[in-house]
Amino acid sequence: MRLHNLPWTTPIEATDPRMTGIGHWTLNAYWDSDYSGPVWGRWRLNVDGDEGVWKGTWGGYRRFSRDRVECLGFPPCWIAKLKMVGRGSGGMVEGLKAKAIETSRTFSPLPAPYENLCLKLFGGPCPLQDIPEGSVIGYIREPNPVKK
Asked: Which residues constitute the domain of residue 101?
């Protein structure tokens, strides 16, 4: 299966307010029969309070799992390890650079928010919605100073 420029939007909560806001993503993928394979795309994060915009790229690999621990007791699931890079513009992120690694978990062949799974399986909200769909570890750094 090949996917090109599939868009989605999601709220992002972070310990750093410079990375909290509304994220916009595009997904490209080349998946095999169990929906595993390379994934990549672009991302944009509109920082809360109109404090700037991050823009960047991401890429990695998504794999199928039947492991109950990995899948939070709901096998099967898909686990993705993603590398992200981006640059900030405007507000509090002007000129900053970011690098991160994200681990995400989804419960349907097409990545979908947990809210959709809860609605389909339980007809409303469920405890799964309280678990983040992904976790990101990364850093923000100032740009290199111009050498004279």
From this structure: 2-141
57 domain residue, yes or no: yes
Q: What is the pLDDT along the chain (148 residues), one digit of tens a residue?
A: 899 998 888 888 888 999 999 999 999 999 999 999 999 999 999 999 999 999 999 999 999 999 999 888 877 899 999 999 999 999 999 999 999 999 988 888 877 666 566 666 777 767 666 666 777 889 899 877 666 6
Burial of 60 (0-12, 13-18, 19+ CB in 10 A): middle
CA dist., res. 39 & res. 135, Å (int): 17
What residues contact residue 147 under an 8 Å CB cut-off, 6+ apart?
Answer: none
Q: Confirm whether 146 is domain-assigned.
A: no
Number of domains the chain contains? 1
